[in-house]
Design goal:
The chain is α/β, with parallel strands linked by helices. It has helices spanning 12-22, 71-88, 104-116, 131-134, 139-162, 171-181, 203-217, 239-247, 268-277, 289-298, 310-313, 318-325, 336-342, 356-368, 372-386, 389-406, and strands at residues 27-32, 34-35, 40-41, 47-52, 55-60, 97-101, 121-125, 165-168, 190-191, 225-233, 257-265, 281-285, 301-304, 330-332, 348-350. The chain is built from 16 helices and 15 strands. The strands form 4 sheets. The chain has a 6-stranded parallel beta sheet with strand order 12-11-10-13-14-15, sandwiched between helices. Strands 6-7-8-9 form a 4-stranded parallel beta sheet, with helices on one face. The relative contact order is 0.11.
């Protein structure tokens, strides 16, 4: 969020909000008091902050949680929906409501409010909930969790059915959202890819960020191979293959390879322990945007250790655009949309998920690349074609204005 501090990496909804504010619109952006990425509370109650003229952030109260999958996270999402219901009663009517999904609870609550007041309502599909939860449950867990899964599906259908239009981070997500709505796809149902703006950073700041990595990496050869990951340390991701693959490197290879994992999450402890035992693994922790950009400028590839699950097969994770923008080919075991995008340009350094030996073979292949400059050029060109924020967010804002003026019922 803009008020989270300097060098905060703003993502999809924040960037769209800023684009709309620059056009002269009044924007209210709702989020949770609980910071999902850093796992800390911003405020202990629903709080409104003026970010800039015409731009207000409202932090809806949601209790804290430690695990991305657990009862407290579900209750936190329900807190958000309850806080929205209470807050919305006191506010002037907006011209349009644009809502991300998940969380399902907030989307369902917002859809009820939009229907009651005949406000155009749009849903942005970013994860296939509840399927990604259901897929991880044991047979017994599915039986015990059936009432909750059913309730999520009912609320998702409620939100999608009420939607004037549906967007998503890929066309696959739009199709999934439309299928959930039970209606045919309409003209306004469109994808807008994830993209992060390359906001200029002062050279002195970047010099400090680069020095941070040089100091951390220590006695590391100038021609060594660095692979970078920036994101959540989630149990859903295939970190076991990466960590076990790194253990297959010889002692000599461990001196010239570095897999730098930046982030925090469920498997933070596991990554920290493995990093202590293997110098090729570096736990970089949660890093600022300048530090991540500096790391990527020093790297040979970006790492995307995602499973071939339904949600990842139909989308381009945020990191795809970020890696390509930094000129990095991508080391990954994922197929689907990512493979379709990268493979024709030779920008996928592929391995088989669950096969550490195949991972380390892919890692070693980076050392033999004799056309890295060509790959960097291809990556940046593809990023400009598919993930340019200068193209995506103005188009996204144009679309939202169009739906607001032509897609909704008169109040």
């Amino acid at each position: 969020m803009p008020s989270d501090g300097p060098n905060t990496r703003l993502l999809r909804a924040c960037i769209l909000a800023e684009e709309l504010v620059e056009r002269g619109h009044d924007v209210t952006y709702l989020n949770s008091t609980f910071n999902h990425q850093k796992k800390h509370q911003r405020y202990d109650r629903t709080t409104s902050i003026i970010e800039s003229p015409g731009y207000r952030s409202v932090y809806l109260y949601g209790r804290s949680y430690r695990s991305n999958i657990g009862v407290r996270r579900i209750l936190s999402h329900r807190d958000n929906a309850h806080a929205f219901r209470k807050w919305a009663k006191t506010q002037p009517m907006p011209d349009i409501i644009h809502c991300g999904l998940p969380p399902i609870e907030l989307a369902a609550e917002a859809s009820c409010f939009a229907r009651l007041h005949q406000i155009p309502f749009t849903v942005d599909c970013r994860d296939v909930w509840p399927e990604i939860i259901e897929d991880r449950l044991s047979p017994l867990g599915r039986i015990l969790g059936a009432p909750l899964i059913h309730d999520w599906r009912r609320k998702r259908s409620q939100a999608m059915t009420a939607a004037t239009a549906i967007t998503g981070v890929s066309d696959g997500f739009v199709q999934w959202g439309v299928a959930s709505s039970g209606r045919p796809r309409r003209e306004f149902d469109r994808p807008f890819h994830l993209a992060t703006p390359a906001t200029p950073i002062d050279k002195s700041v970047m010099d400090v960020a680069r020095k941070y990595w040089l100091d951390l990496l220590g006695d590391f050869p100038a021609d060594g191979i660095i692979v970078a990951y920036a994101g959540t340390f989630s149990r859903r991701f295939d970190f076991p293959t990466v960590l076990s693959g790194a253990d297959l490197l010889s002692e000599e290879e461990r001196s010239r390879f570095r897999i730098v994992l930046c982030g925090s999450g469920d498997v933070d402890g596991v990554i920290s322990e493995r990093a202590k035992m293997n110098p090729a693994i570096v736990n970089g922790g949660w890093r600022s945007r300048p530090e991540l950009l500096a790391l990527m400028s020093m790297s040979a590839a970006g790492l995307l250790p995602y499973p071939n699950s339904q949600d990842f097969l139909v989308t381009f994770p945020n990191k795809v655009g970020e890696y390509l923008t930094s000129g990095l080919p991508i080391l990954t075991g994922i197929g689907g949309a990512v493979d379709t995008l990268l493979a024709p340009h030779s920008l996928k350094i592929g391995y088989t998920n669950g096969d550490p030996a195949d991972f380390v073979a892919a890692l070693r292949s980076l050392e033999r690349e004799n056309h890295m400059a060509d790959l960097r050029h291809k990556a940046k060109k593809l990023a400009q074609e598919k993930f340019s924020p200068e193209k995506i967010y103005p188009a996204f804002a144009d679309w939202l204005e169009m739906v607001a003026t032509t897609g909704g019922s008169a109040r």
